[in-house]
Design brief:
heterodimer; A: mainly alpha; Non-ribosomal Peptide Synthetase Peptidyl Carrier Protein, Chain A; 4 helices; globular; B: alpha/beta; FAD/NAD(P)-binding domain; Polyamine Oxidase, Chain A, domain 2; seven-stranded mixed β-sheet
Chain lengths: 87, 463
């Protein structure tokens, strides 16, 4: 999965969780919760959606990695690659 | 034998919310509901062509259209259940009033109005009221154990006029205290915010609208609900629920059991417990409610308020009364008086009073009905100052007593608000049995859903 695809996938999850938020111009370098109305329960849901939809596990110690969109891409792209390799 | 990740007892608001959350994340979930309709304490029924909500006066925790601020409970529910706030279709109240013998407070979904009323009618108490507002600014933490703190005592820090204390507490106790004379201060904060800060709304088609939303979501996420299928017993082995025995003798198993049946009620289902061990913890506060179907709008009878909390003296008593019904106080709800876009299809008035459950239980049928009729007439008298004598405007009357509540919801003593001892953590003595709903300490429709969601997140996801 490419970085662009991972970005799209994360934004897709966010708009499912928070349909009233506009995700069209999220700044990838700024913390997601500083530009969108997302709280800790929503972040938990992002993690749970990743597990449900893509079988990607994010351990609690790594939650911080997901705080920006760039962070998500950096952290998740190798995980998707590893998954592809395994399959 | 069918095995579930999570079995849920009771298809009320909390059970439905818990099931939606768990099923959404792929858990195999089933709700077991003894009654043939869902909704529990907030259900609906039809009688002689009239549609009734079971007990709903108001949905608390109204979200104002322009609301900006920290996330409030109904918004949390919307996110967690993936049901937009707008889908609940709540219309705001016009205003409500608290009427005691020598003072009246009117208030609405903007707490500023209540503040102004306090300032005008109790000028020496306004500073204390403002401090109370600040002390209630945030909800107590979910699932965190906290000792019982008496609101009556705590109020001394803020408000010194006993009349104002009683007037502020009256609506909150009526809409959510299982404790005689008092309420836990943590719960008081929740009620204060839900009722005074956020306020009342009501969906156009009553509670059924919300229940339909929840049921549609449950189907969408492939959660299962089995009506007419109560849980008769929870077999306990090695500190866990090992088997769930249903009313029809069928046996199922589950990794986790979440019960919304009430704390004492759930303990009584356990195979390893003396069923009367917790008698002292049973809820004591029963209610009667009379629903009058009218041939005209309550406005034509002079009532503009949505909800009227009344107390015929200046001292408010919150306890199980000695007589069948305590007519010295009550709640008068006029569902017509929400800010509807379309007029309701039928005019109704609901009048609620405290009732002594021990008097109502075990009455022979003929006595039960004659006593009920007598109190319906006297209840009408008790609200005369707001709507006059409306006997000639009544098309139909129905209502419930503590007996009715127990029959349809299984709540012991008809105690709608459950046991005075809340199990805030949702945990029980058993490793895989948890509580949600009334006895987890959350109240009202929105509170119940918050409870279901919180307990599901904390204990159901890892099954």
């Amino acid at each position: 999965m490419t970085e662009v695809e991972v970005k799209e996938l994360i934004l897709g999850i966010i708009s499912d969780i928070a349909p009233d938020e506009d995700v069209s111009d999220v700044d990838p370098e700024v913390r997601l919760r500083d530009q969108l109305d997302l709280d800790s329960m929503d972040f938990l849901d992002i993690v749970m959606e990743l597990r449900k939809r893509h079988k990607i596990e994010v351990p609690e110690d790594d939650y911080m990695e997901l705080s920006t969109l760039d962070g998500c891409v950096r952290y998740l792209t190798p995980k998707f690659e590893a998954q592809k390799g395994a399959a | 034998m069918t095995h579930y990740d999570v079995a849920i007892i009771g298809a009320g608001m909390s059970g439905l919310a818990a099931a939606i959350r768990l099923a959404h994340f792929g858990k195999k979930v089933c709700i077991f509901e003894r009654h043939y309709v869902w909704g529990g304490l907030n259900s609906f029924y039809k009688q002689k062509g009239h549609h009734f909500d079971v007990g709903l006066h108001a949905v608390t925790n109204y979200v104002k259209p322009n609301y900006k601020g920290p996330r409030i409970p109904l918004q949390l529910i919307a996110r967690q259940l993936r049901i937009p706030v707008d889908a609940f279709a709540l219309r705001p109240q016009s205003y409500s009033q608290t009427v005691f013998e020598s003072a009246t407070l009117t208030w609405d979904n903007d707490i500023g109005r209540l503040r102004e009323q306090v300032k005008e009618k109790f000028p020496d108490q306004i500073d204390g009221f403002v401090r109370l507002e600040e002390a209630c600014a945030s909800y107590p933490a979910a699932l965190e154990e906290r000792p019982f703190v008496s609101t009556r005592q705590k109020m001394n820090d803020f408000i010194t006029d006993p009349l104002l204390v009683d007037m502020l507490m009256c609506p909150l106790l009526y809409y959510g205290s299982a404790v005689e004379g008092d309420v836990d201060f943590g719960q008081f904060i929740t009620l204060f915010n839900s009722i005074y800060r956020e306020g009342f709304g009501r969906p156009d088609k009553g509670v059924k609208h919300i229940l339909n939303l929840l049921l549609a979501r449950l189907k969408e996420v492939e959660g299962e609900m089995r009506p007419r299928c109560g849980v008769r017993e929870l077999s306990v082995k090695d500190g866990r629920v090992s088997e769930i025995i249903l009313d029809n003798d069928e046996v199922v198993t589950a990794d986790v059991v979440i019960s919304s049946a009430g704390w004492v009620e759930t303990e009584r289902l356990r195979s390893d417990k003396d069923s009367f061990a917790l008698e002292a913890k049973e809820g004591q506060l029963g209610f009667v409610e009379n629903i009058f179907v009218l041939d005209r709008s309550p406005k034509d009878l002079g009532l503009d308020a949505t909800i009227t909390f009344f107390n015929h003296s200046d001292r408010f008593q919150w306890k199980s009364p000695d007589p069948f019904v305590d007519l010295t106080s009550g709640v008068l709800c006029a569902p017509d008086n929400y800010q509807w876009e379309e007029a309701p299809r039928e005019h109704q008035l609901r009048v609620t009073h405290l009732a002594n459950w021990s008097k109502w239980f075990g009455l022979p049928a003929d006595q039960y009905y004659s006593i009920k009729d007598d109190f319906i007439a006297r209840s009408r008298q008790s609200v005369k100052q707001f709507v006059g004598d409306f006997e000639d405007c009544i098309n139909y009357i129905d209502g419930f007593s503590p007996t009715t509540v127990t029959r349809f919801t299984g709540h012991i003593n008809g105690a709608i608000y459950g046991s005075p001892e809340k199990q805030v953590t949702g945990k029980t003595e058993l490793d895989n049995l948890f509580l949600c709903g009334t006895d987890q300490g959350m109240l009202g429709i929105v509170g119940a859903m918050v409870s279901g969601v919180t307990v599901a997140n904390a204990y159901g996801m890892n099954s």
